[in-house]
Amino acid sequence: MAVKAWNLTGVIVLAAVLLSSVGCAGVAGPNLTVAGVPIPVTPFMQAKREDEYWQKERYQRVPVLGPLTSGGPVQALDPPSDDEIMIALERAHPVKGGFPLLHEVQRNNVRIVKEKIADYIDPPRFYPLMGPAQQHHAHYKCTVYYTEITRVGWPVPHTLRDEDAREVIYVDHNHFHMVGNVETGPQSDF
Length: 190
Description:
By secondary structure, the protein is an alpha+beta fold. The chain has a domain at 51-63 and 78-123 and 130-181. 24% of the residues lie in helices and 35% in strands. The chain has three helices and five strands, in the order H-H-E-H-E-E-E-E. It has helices at residues 2-20, 43-58, 82-92; strands at residues 64-65, 103-121, 125-127, 131-152, 158-178. Strands 1, 2, 3, 4 and 5 form a five-stranded mixed beta sheet that branches.
């Protein structure tokens, strides 16, 4: 009887030691709940947040460049990237389907043609929180050629192939140029 009590006590002590030494059990942090248990995040949600951050960091900010100089280039120097065009295409015309072995749609052999259709600069004006500036507009017509493959698996399995699929996406690139005497930072009086 005494041996059983010592065995039971030893098992309880061992269980308490093992449970208290688990990695994040007693640690509170920014990604842990009040109970200290990590919350699992699906890869879909993580990829979605990373894509949102990429969009904000790369494409949703308007840069402010230095003033235009006489004799310098006034054309926009940055055509839209292929990544930006494909994201705009997916937003405007999402791929329908996505049920494996039932109905799948793919875009293969993608070719992108970019044409500048307008490039102009607005007259100087005052923008709040920025000061006097000129807005530079560049408009692009982007034609995306691709092969669309649709695989249907039920009720009769078959594949549809559109070799001459195309979509037209219009992309606007705008940025600002400062106007006048521009201060680039704090000046010292030395």
